[in-house]
Predict the 3D structure of the following.
Amino acid sequence: MSQQSQVVQNLFSEDLYAIPPRVLVVLAKPWENLSADDITLLTKILSSVKIKLDSIQVVTRPSFTMTDVEAYTPSLILAFGASINTHSTLYEPITVQGTPLVLANELHQLDDPQKKALWLALRQIFGI
């Protein structure tokens, strides 16, 4: 074994793991400004598709482009109150640059018909 390969072998003695992409939740207002009811609703929405709140990434942007969020390498994007520059139809699952996306109203604005439309979009995007 050469000296260089010995150095490389000892340089990384622990196992390296690939972290799978996460669901990215884009909020129009900061997390700190969400009410307890908003957080509870988000938790229920995520649990309906078998995702835990602690397994998502949350960013705050009133509007965004895929370039803005590509560093997060999301598996899919759920946007509440945030808009994307390429599409504006709410509750319609779309794919932008290979990433599934659903746009919805802000959490505190969701009424029963909008929640139903969101559920239908989530069922489609998650294959439920």
User: Anything to note?
Assistant: DSSP finds four helices and seven strands in the chain.
